[in-house]
Amino acid sequence: MKTEVIVIGAGGHAKVCIELLQAQGDTVACCVGNPDSPDTCVGIPVLKSDDHLSALFNEGYRRAFVAIGANAVRNKLAAKATALGFTLVNAVSPAATVSPSARLGAGVAVMAGAVINAEATIADLCIVNTGATIDHDCILGQAVHIAPQCALAGNVQVGDLSFIGVGSKIIPQIRIGESSMVGAGSVVISNVGSAVTVVGVPAKALNKF
Ligand SMILES: CC(C)(COP(=O)(O)OP(=O)(O)OC[C@H]1O[C@@H](n2cnc3c(N)ncnc32)[C@H](O)[C@@H]1OP(=O)(O)O)[C@@H](O)C(=O)NCCC(=O)NCCS
């Protein structure tokens, strides 16, 4: 079996993830994109349809990483890859700090400068983006994206598929539901339900503005 990684995605987020994979010692064989993708992504050749995945599996590739920022799309393509038999690998920057007592699922990206503190739980397919900090005992559900420079204080929980916009801050103990969105630069001081967008300081539901 081949040990090289297949990267699913070929956009800006994939560029960063490819370099994370290379920095941790993996070789990336190719990207799997769509008909609009560029021919290469940071020098890696791009196959322009996810229909190529089954052929790649038949060629002996077994390790994949889904490098797509959009949570629902990342979740869907990961399900497709694992159904074909691929194992999802993690991409963790050597310049990130991950506590030895933190738990990371599969298919997780942790960018440079990120900090994941004691006994935090990061489920499958999460992105902890550049410089984001996830403090002790936080729980991130499946396919959550914490954008660059966010700060989650201790004991915060974020439900599956939710997105926390760049530079947001969340005070301790806050619960955020599933498939919700926190706008860039928000400060979350009260719980947020599922499938809602909140913005501002303090963060309030967008449709209440
Ligand atoms: C919250 C967000 C998703 C809303 O996007 P949208 O649904 O297209 O909303 P709009 O741009 O139409 O804005 C709607 C209103 O909310 C306000 N608003 C939008 N985002 C806001 C924010 N982050 N903080 C405060 N107000 C905000 C707008 O000013 C607008 O107000 P108005 O109706 O008085 O003019 C988006 O603005 C945002 O913050 N995205 C985060 C992006 C990000 O962090 N990406 C990181 C990638 S790694």
Automatic annotation (TrEMBL):
In what residue span(s) does the PglD N-terminal domain sit? 5-80
Q: Which InterPro entries match?
A: AcTrfase_PglD-like, Hexapep_transf_CS, PglD_N, Trans_hexapeptide_repeat
PROSITE patterns annotated for this entry? HEXAPEP_TRANSFERASES
Please provide an example of a Pfam family that matches this protein in its UniProt record: PglD_N
Family from the record: Belongs to the transferase hexapeptide repeat family.
**What name is this protein filed under?**
Acetyltransferase
Q: Which organism is it from?
A: Pseudomonas ekonensis
